Amino acid sequence: MKIISDILPFFLLELKGFYDDREIKSLAYISIEHILKMSKSDTLINGYTTIEESKIPEIRSTVVSLKKYKPIQYIFKETEFYNSKFYCAIGSLIPRPETEELVDWVIRDNKNDTQDYLDIGTGGGCIIISLCKSLSGSFTGVDASIDALNVAMINNDINETNVTFETVDVFDYDKDLSTSKLNIKYDIIVSNPPYILSSEKEQMNKNVLDWEPHVALFVEDKEPLIFYNNIADIARNILNKNGKLYFEINERFGKDIVELLEKKGFVNIELKKDINDKDRMIKAMWK
């Protein structure tokens, strides 16, 4: 591996059997962009350029990590979400494209209003920071994981946003409401809680199962709606009149969550499909 054009064949050879060719090529170009600061077109134009000697160990190290199925976002500690860069570290969930669709829905619904926003289970803060960059009002994110909130606060600085973060466990949130961010009223609550069934783990890739925080991904089969139930109860207490609750959901439970929200008194409930035609989002209004 001496020149730029050697890198892609190196990735394809070393990672064969770990990923399919299309993904290997994607990983190679992402790696080149981060390590050599070159775009895909740059690599084609400058294919015969010699690789700096100091960069070769980093390229090899990246391939070693990929063989362990370490996500590329954790390797380079960076990901892109809703056209912004975010710090990404182990202990915080890697944001998905479907969550961008949820963010886009919230923004399109509320772009003309100044409101108070709360993100429950904020993780690395991608949702609430993206809302803060596009909307007017106050913005708060809460999560039970201190590790995730540390990532969120770094992202708040990186994106130069003014989001307040607080440690809150939705199953123990009323322990000291006098000082909690859940003791004030909000106009909009958004949440992407854990919703993948434990029984679905066998269908997941190793780069998810071996690296991403299970607590942010999975729920027990016997209580698939446990987070939605608790968060809906919280929302009933802290949403202003005509306030809205937005959820990202498991496609298998769309109708069940609609029914749950109806029973709790929410109205104007809308179940929305994602770009892959799967039930993925729900919006409900507190009367």
Structural features, described:
The protein is of the alpha/beta class and 287 residues long. It has two domains: 4-67; 82-286, Vaccinia Virus protein VP39 (Rossmann fold). Helix content is 38%, strand content 22%. The protein has a seven-stranded mixed β-sheet with strand order 5-4-3-6-9-11-10, sandwiched between helices. Strands 1-2 form a two-stranded antiparallel ribbon. Strands 7-8 form a two-stranded parallel ribbon. Strand 4, helix 8 (146-158) and strand 5 form a beta-alpha-beta unit. Helix 1 crosses helix 2 and helix 6 (97-110) packs parallel to helix 7 (126-134). The longest helix is centred in the N-terminal third of the chain and has 16 residues, at 21-36. The protein starts with 6 loop residues before the first helix and ends with a strand.
How would the blueprint of this fold be written?
Blueprint: H1 7-14, H2 21-36, H3 40-45, H4 56-67, H5 72-76, E1 78-81, E2 84-87, H6 97-110, E3 114-120, H7 126-134, E4 136-143, H8 146-158, E5 163-167, E6 186-191, E7 196-197, H9 206-209, E8 218-219, H10 226-238, E9 239-248, H11 254-263, E10 266-273, E11 279-286
Parallel strand pairs: 3-4, 3-6, 4-5, 6-9, 7-8
Antiparallel strand pairs: 1-2, 9-11, 10-11
Helix pairs in contact: 1-2, 6-7
